[in-house]
Structures are given as structure tokens and as C-alpha cells.
Design a protein that fits this description.
The complex is a heterodimer of chains A (about 110) and B (about 110).
Chain A lengths: L4 E3 L2 E5 L4 E6 L5 E9 L6 E6 L5 E4 L2 E6 L4 E6 L8 E9 L7 E2 L3 E6 L1
Parallel strand pairs in A: 2-11
Antiparallel strand pairs in A: 1-3, 3-8, 4-5, 4-9, 6-7, 7-8, 9-10, 9-11
Chain B lengths: L3 E4 L2 E4 L5 E7 L5 E7 L6 E6 L6 E2 L6 E5 L5 E5 L8 E8 L7 E2 L3 E5 L1
Parallel strand pairs in B: 2-11
Antiparallel strand pairs in B: 1-3, 3-8, 4-5, 4-9, 5-6, 7-8, 9-10, 9-11
Classes of the chains: A mainly beta (about 110), B mainly beta (about 110).
Chain lengths: ~110, ~110
């Protein structure tokens, strides 16, 4: 069993706050780290795919960093808005597994107006 | 609309009944996947197909079979449904390993 850990499990912030959460994973045989955004009653949507140590990706107010040597990734949301409320999933792909992903349990973010 | 189409969206089965969940993608993706999502658990891989003609077991394959009918379609079959298979099932596809997955809208299955 391969453990991909996300913390915190849930997070409540006020509109305008900046926030971040963590994804931890085994660093051996790393290939890629994915982040997904999953809104209630919808299906997960890909945010970022990161493959290189030190990678930083940005999409609007959301950004992510990657440290493959120590096995973690951070997702940052700057100036949270109510529409950012969702569950954020990270998923690990290892080099030997032909594209399959191992998902964490997600961080559920609620942004209050 | 381009993407991954799953049918049905909802299904209620009696214990012991069989059914097939259908998944089709029109993006010419090579790889397709079936996941289940249960409360408090992450998405868990049931089966996947890295390319047309190949299928492999994931973390929780017991009680399921799959068919990669062609490049577009990947079906999941429950031969004899059990209450433990009550879950939300997601199909996904990807073009290559460094691309994100595209997910279908899910099938909510209840086995009574």
C-alpha cells in the first residue's frame, strides 16, 4: 500500500484569506505529482501536473510547489474566494506504474463570504 | 461535448444482481481507469487499461471485471453485486503519463 497523505483534512477560511495545504508522498521512484480540484456534485478537474524537483506551477490565484527529494508538495491559494470552496486532491505517479495514480484523501476547503 | 461519458448516473441493485458500468472517451486517450470513491477514503483504483488490449488490476479489483472494448470504451462489470460495492464510481482517461486525468461525471451505485 502506498500512502499519499494530505493535511489538513479540512480547512475553513474567510474570503480574502490566503491558505495552503500539504501533500506528502514517498520520494522513491517518483515520476509526477498531480493536483486536482473537486467541487461538490462534480468530477475532479486537473489543476497541475509537476514532474521536476523545484517545479512551481501557477494558475490564477492558485500555485503549487514540489520537493521530490523530501516528498512533499504545497498548494497555495492567494486571496481565497467562495468559489474556491472544493476538495483539493493530490495524486502520485511512480515511474513503474504506467500512468496509474495514487490519490490522497484530499483537503476540503470552505471559504466563507 | 468532448470528454468522458459514464452511464448510468445512478443505479440501485439487489444483492447478487449483475450490471455493467459503461465508459467512453472521445479524446483519443490511450489510458483509461476505473476508481471508486467511498466516504473518508481517497479515490481507489479498481482496474486500469494502459492501452487498447491491455488491462491490469488496481488496489481493489475483487468482485469486478473490466473490458477494454476498443480505444474509446472501457466497461466495468459487477458479476454478483454486494452491499460493500455501494460506492461512487468514476471512470477517467489520460493521454500520457505527464498529463492530468479527465474524469467522467460518476455513477452512484447502491446495492441493497
Amino acid at each position: 500500500i502506498l500512502n499519499v497523505e494530505q493535511s489538513p483534512q479540512s480547512l475553513h477560511v474567510q474570503e480574502g484569506d490566503s491558505t495552503n495545504f500539504t501533500c506528502s508522498f514517498p520520494s522513491s521512484n517518483f515520476y509526477a505529482l498531480h493536483w486536482y480540484r473537486w467541487e461538490t456534485a462534480k468530477s475532479p478537474e486537473a489543476l497541475f501536473v509537476m514532474t521536476l524537483n523545484g517545479d512551481e506551477k501557477k494558475k490564477g490565484r492558485i500555485s503549487a510547489t514540489l520537493n521530490t527529494k523530501e516528498g512533499y508538495s504545497y498548494l497555495y491559494i492567494k486571496g481565497s474566494q467562495p468559489e474556491d470552496s472544493a476538495t483539493y486532491l493530490c495524486a502520485l505517479r511512480r515511474g513503474s506504474t504506467l500512468g496509474r495514480l495514487y490519490f490522497g484523501r484530499g483537503t476540503q476547503l470552505t471559504v466563507w463570504p | 461535448n468532448a470528454g468522458v461519458t459514464q452511464t448510468p448516473k445512478f443505479q440501485v441493485l439487489k444483492t447478487g444482481q449483475s450490471m455493467t458500468l459503461q465508459c467512453a472517451q472521445d479524446m483519443n486517450h490511450n489510458s483509461m481507469y476505473w476508481y471508486r470513491q467511498d466516504p473518508g477514503m481517497g479515490l481507489r483504483l479498481i482496474y486500469y487499461s494502459a492501452s487498447e488490449g491491455t488491462t491490469d488490476k488496481g488496489e481493489v479489483p475483487n468482485g469486478y471485471n473490466v473490458s477494454r472494448l476498443n480505444k474509446r470504451e472501457f466497461s466495468l462489470r459487477l458479476e454478483s453485486a454486494a452491499p460493500s460495492q455501494t460506492s461512487v464510481y468514476f471512470c477517467a482517461s489520460s493521454e500520457r503519463a505527464d498529463y492530468g486525468y479527465t474524469f467522467g461525471s460518476g455513477t452512484r451505485l447502491t446495492v441493497v
